[in-house]
Design brief:
Distance between the termini: 65 Å
CATH topology of the largest domain: D-Maltodextrin-Binding Protein, domain 2
Helix content: 40-55%
CATH superfamily of the largest domain: Bordetella uptake gene, domain 1
Largest sheet: 7 strands, mixed
CATH architecture of the largest domain: 3-Layer(aba) Sandwich
Number of helices: 11
Radius of gyration: 23 Å
């Protein structure tokens, strides 16, 4: 009986050894098949554009196709939840971002994934400010003038927003920081909101800098401030909100790439290195800077810390504003 047990133990240990060797070989050979990159939003928006740009560059570096799969729904929550439950083998990369990995937790503390503990964050891909825009018919030329008007006329100045988007969060932070009461006009999409802003139906919004730029250049909209800590290269004459009297103010649109917790460290290291190489390409740099986006600090550590800080900030803002999920 004892010999039989010893034999079974030996067979089991040998099997574990073979399994470990197989896992090591699979990790060393990674990637040896196409990789899926989950974008948790429909095609066409900024998130999709950034995901496809990274897929294009990572394909060159990793020598395997990196294929974007769009899984939209619930502001990015549906696709993110599905992606983080896929096998943690490095063949599913998850696009993470401000909506689904920071704002979502403030709106619903009971969402099924935890953006701090359920992911390994590889690197941030892009960062860009929102721009405080007013229709040219409005008298405000500066943030100070707008705030003074709002304080003298509480609740009488309207703004447009799409629920839980980065521009919505920027406006809530601005209202709380400046101590003003404005009336929000909700829109189901950024397109109808922009159309109403251009028509003067709604007097002001916060909007992503890449979307706002052609209208500002054409004189159809007036930019009062950008929400980054430093001025944006494509808006050199537009001050930051911080410069306008609100030190430390920052509200960004951003995304990065992550994988599910449990992904083997050798694969994580390969992906992090591949991202660093991809983001140094001339094509990547030109595509980002030409639309006013900034390439952030690279690497897993700064991105992990950034996601946590964004989650904390927007949870505080949402709680203070009393914003609920739709």
């Amino acid at each position: 009986m004892m010999k039989k047990r010893q034999l079974l133990t030996a067979i089991g240990l040998a099997g574990l050894g073979l399994l470990s060797q197989g896992q090591a070989l699979a990790q060393a050979d990674y990637p040896n098949k196409p990789i899926k990159l989950i974008v948790a939003f429909p095609p066409g928006g900024t998130s999709d554009v950034m995901g496809r740009l990274m897929a294009e560059e990572l394909t060159k570096v990793l020598k395997q196709p990196v294929v974007v799969e769009n899984i939209g729904g619930a502001g990015g929550i549906v696709g993110t939840d599905r992606a983080v439950k896929m096998p943690a083998d490095g063949y599913t990369i998850i696009q993470t971002g401000v909506g689904q990995n920071a704002v979502a937790h403030g709106l619903d503390p009971n969402i099924k994934y935890n953006s701090v503990t359920d992911f390994i964050h590889l690197a941030q891909v892009h960062s860009g400010p929102n721009v405080l825009l007013v229709h040219p018919s409005q008298p405000f030329k500066t943030v100070k003038e707008l705030v003074e008007h709002a304080k003298k006329n509480p609740g009488k100045l309207d703004y447009g927003y799409t629920h839980a988007a980065s521009g919505h969060m920027a406006m809530e932070l601005f209202k709380q920081t400046a101590g003003i009461f404005l009336t929000g006009i909700p829109y189901r999409g950024g397109g109808p909101m922009l159309n109403d802003l251009l028509a003067g139906t709604v007097p002001m919004v916060f909007l992503n800098q890449d979307v706002a730029l052609p209208h500002v250049k054409a004189g159809k909209l007036r930019a009062l401030a950008v929400t980054s800590k430093e001025r944006n290269a494509l808006y050199p004459d537009v001050p930051t909100v911080a410069e306008s009297g609100y030190k430390g103010f920052e509200a960004l649109s951003w995304s990065g790439l992550s994988v599910a917790k449990g992904t083997p460290q050798p694969i994580v290291d390969k992906l992090e290195a591949a991202m660093a190489q991809a983001m140094q390409s001339a094509n990547f740099k030109q595509r980002l800077t030409s639309t006013g986006f900034v390439i952030p600090a690279q690497g897993s550590k700064p991105y992990t810390e950034f996601v946590k800080s964004e989650l904390d900030q927007w949870t505080r803002v949402i709680k203070t504003a009393g914003i609920k999920p739709q």
